[in-house]
Amino acid sequence: MSNLSSKPYQIGYALTPKKEQTFIVPSLLSYASQNGVVLTKIDPTKPLIQQGPFDCILHKLYDSDWKQSLQDFASRNPNIPIIASPESIDILRNRISMLETVSKLKINNTGVPKQITITEVTGLENLKLNFPLIAKPLDADGSETSHKLHLIFDKDGLNNLTAPFVLQEFVNHGGVIFKVYVAGKYFRCVKRKSLPDISEENLVNLKGSLPFSQVSNLAAAGGGEGCKFEKTEMPPESLVKELVEGLKEELRLNLFNFDVIRDGKNKENYLVIDINYFPGYAKMPDFESVITDFLRDVVHKDINCGDN
Ligand SMILES: Nc1ncnc2c1ncn2[C@@H]1O[C@H](COP(=O)(O)OP(=O)(O)OP(=O)(O)O)[C@@H](O)[C@H]1O
Ligand SMILES: O=P(O)(O)O[C@H]1[C@H](OP(=O)(O)O)[C@@H](OP(=O)(O)O)[C@@H](O)[C@@H](O)[C@@H]1OP(=O)(O)O
Ligand SMILES: [Mg+2]
Ligand SMILES: [Mg+2]
């Protein structure tokens, strides 16, 4: 349904240059404007209350000046939805609080890998975790370093890591990861290439650590591996739906994705390993209509955006 007969909805967006480049693309701008939604850039260095008027704010910025500007705007405009509240986003900026939300849900056949926080690099002798491990920076703040992870094969591999970080057990999962994109009422699960399994025989030959980043942005490999990728079954729709509904409510977020792997040792079990606020939607099929419908739902108050 279009609102072309009435005034278009004005959506103000405040994003990093990288996010703007990948998300505010011509195909989105034209689809949205044809359907009564206009996306306008906010200047985050100027007070938000002096810009607009807006029917909705969409943002992925974290600095304190911006948060203050948002708060001033929200107190003067309590009925204008803000996607999303900084409090909700902050839960996903720490890799421990991020996955605690999944544990709280207590959904059958779902969980998270065993993990602990390391704040100091001394005294790492008696870890109650099994190798191989993955070290992930504690802050998932979108910086390049926040995506720099290490596979750790043995005790020596724990040297030279920068605290604070999270040590998480590496779980064999057949080299395929499922990414579930959520945008309000909509969700979609897609397959991506992941790290390959590490067998116990191979682990004996692997020493120290191995840095890596953004594996799942690689295309699926061709040949034998590609074939296995194609044949990998998707997780049960009912399980994905339960996770989506549970996480939306627990996080009070509408715009996020999460990564799920199928435990190679217990194939009934699916583990959530990562949740991202406002991820790379442009990689999703039909992203222009999904995002436009979502923004219209937000302005219509057909979906709830936290306190606003
Ligand atoms: N516990 C684990 N067991 C097995 N593989 C894992 C585990 N944790 C992460 N991985 C692999 O490492 C990749 C990156 O991990 P993760 O998703 O936590 O990092 P990220 O930098 O937050 O990624 P994103 O780009 O999705 O934000 C995953 O896509 C998966 O391939
Ligand atoms: O575009 P952005 O800068 O927001 O990058 C996001 C990236 O999207 P991109 O792949 O289009 O870059 C996302 O990839 P998918 O999960 O969707 O594959 C994911 O890695 C987010 O964690 C990133 O957000 P960040 O954690 O860095 O803030
Ligand atoms: Mg991830
Ligand atoms: Mg992430």
From TrEMBL:
Key words of the record: ATP-binding, Kinase, Magnesium, Metal-binding, Nucleotide-binding, Transferase
Recorded GO CC terms: cytoplasm
Molecular functions (GO terms): ATP binding; inositol-1,3,4-trisphosphate 5-kinase activity; inositol-1,3,4-trisphosphate 6-kinase activity; inositol-3,4,5,6-tetrakisphosphate 1-kinase activity; magnesium ion binding
Known EC number: 2.7.1.134
SUPFAM superfamilies: Glutathione synthetase ATP-binding domain-like
Sites where the protein binds 1D-myo-inositol 1,3,4,6-tetrakisphosphate: K179
Domain Inositol-tetrakisphosphate 1-kinase N-terminal: 11-89
Entry keyword Protein biosynthesis: no
Cofactor: Mg(2+)
Catalyses which reaction(s): 1D-myo-inositol 3,4,5,6-tetrakisphosphate + ATP = 1D-myo-inositol 1,3,4,5,6-pentakisphosphate + ADP + H(+)
Cofactor note: Binds 2 magnesium ions per subunit.
Binding site for Mg(2+) 1: D259, D274
Binding-site list for Mg(2+) 2: D274, N276
Residues that bind ATP: 95, 136, 168-179, 194
Statement: the UniProt record of this protein carries the keyword Magnesium: yes
Swiss-Prot/TrEMBL GO biological process terms: inositol trisphosphate metabolic process
Boundaries of every Inositol 1,3,4-trisphosphate 5/6-kinase ATP-grasp domain copy: 109-296
Residues bound to 1D-myo-inositol 1,3,4-trisphosphate: K19, K60, H147, N276, G280
Subunit description: Monomer.
Biological role stated in the UniProt entry: Kinase that can phosphorylate various inositol polyphosphate such as Ins(3,4,5,6)P4 or Ins(1,3,4)P3.
The family this protein is said to belong to: Belongs to the ITPK1 family.
Name of the featured protein: Inositol-tetrakisphosphate 1-kinase
Organism: Gossypium laxum
Lineage: Eukaryota, Viridiplantae, Streptophyta, Embryophyta, Tracheophyta
